[in-house]
Amino acid sequence: IGEDVKPFTPEKTKEIVMSLQQPAVFCNMVGDWPALHWDAKYLSAMLDGKTIQFRLGLKTVDLVPQFETTCSYVKATLEEFLAWSCGQLSCLSGPFSCYEYSKYWAYADYKYIARIFEEKPEIFQDIRWSDFGFPGRSGKESTLWIGSEGANTPCHLDSYGCNLVLQVQGRKRWHLFPPGDTSFLYPTRIPYEESSIFSKVNVANPDLKRFPEFRNATAHVVTLSPGQVLLVPRHWWHYVESIDPITVSINSWIEMDEDHVARVEEAITRTLVCAIKSAENPGDGDLWLNPTEVEATSHEINLQYLNKAVSAYLKRQKASVPEQACSSS
């Protein structure tokens, strides 16, 4: 096959993405994407001194996951991040000065490309999810992740859709667990984040005394290299860690029909978590909400969320069920 011929047509790729129940790595699908050149140096030039928020965690391996609620946060430029990760002396002052590179990792995670590059919308076209059968989907519907060695996301599952992840720079190791392993992973909604269900287990160093059932879980481990795209199917658990000095990846969540049911479940969860939290000692609040959730929304607003989710779900049902069946339900 010639270099420029991709292994699957967009139609075939979409069919695989929407139906596959196992994780898969696509190779030779993005060789002509300009986004393959989005290494940290290039992005630093593109951001031109703009600061972004980094999450900092300890490299020491603990028995409990390092949730985002227990991390430190700094605002810095990519240039400052690169200098820190190279051990340059210029970092003795500046945002990273309190964090020794040998002891900490830093992660600019979950950055909406549409937001951080809003002044440069032309670069959205560097990302071409149309090759995966999603015409019109570009960087505008994607997120960016830039990390140092050891940077990680605690094990969790995403309530909505499936996930396509392009590795651009460095390698990341993914530990994936099927939906059937959910009970072995001790799921929790605290810290609460819309659409993320966390595991209480640090899968990289599990506490088997506290979480004996984790022995029954089956990890599918994959090391993702630059130019490869990983498909994380709906409701697969994943723990992700950077294993090279600098890593850059880009992802996009693909909506699925089942998301309408999940939205109802999420609206109920939000209502419950916020109601319980507001009844708690207000001083404990910070451990409840993931930093991505700005505030505990009011009971009124949560019921509106729930109402919208149920309405959208029922509308969906009506559209897909013949009229006569509908009247009976």
Structure, explained:
The strands form two sheets. Strands 1-12-7-14-5-4-2-3 form an eight-stranded antiparallel beta sheet. A six-stranded antiparallel beta sheet has the order 9-10-6-13-8-11, with helices on one face. The longest helix is centred in the C-terminal third of the chain and has 22 residues. Helices cover 24% and strands 27% of the residues. It is globular. The protein folds into two domains: 246 residues, Jelly Rolls (Sandwich), CATH 2.60.120.650; 63 residues, no CATH class. By secondary structure, the protein is α+β, with helices and mostly antiparallel strands. Helix 5 runs antiparallel to helix 6.
Note the main attributes of this structure:
329 residues, alpha+beta, Jelly Rolls, 6-stranded antiparallel sheet, 7 helices, 14 strands
Tally of individual helices? 7
Rounded to the nearest angstrom, the radius of gyration is 21 Å
How would you state the average pLDDT, rounded?
Answer: 92
Low-confidence stretches: none
Give the number of domains: 2
Strand line-up across the major sheet: 1-12-7-14-5-4-2-3
Specify the CATH homologous superfamily of the largest domain: Cupin
The CATH topology of the largest domain corresponds to Jelly Rolls
Alpha carbon gap, first and last residue: 53 Å
Write the element-wise H/E pattern from the N-terminal end onward. Answer: HEHEEHEHEEEEEEEEEEHHH
What percent of residues are in strands? 25-35%
Oligomeric organization of the protein chains:
single chain
Silhouette: globular
CATH architecture of the largest domain: Sandwich
What class, by secondary structure content? alpha+beta
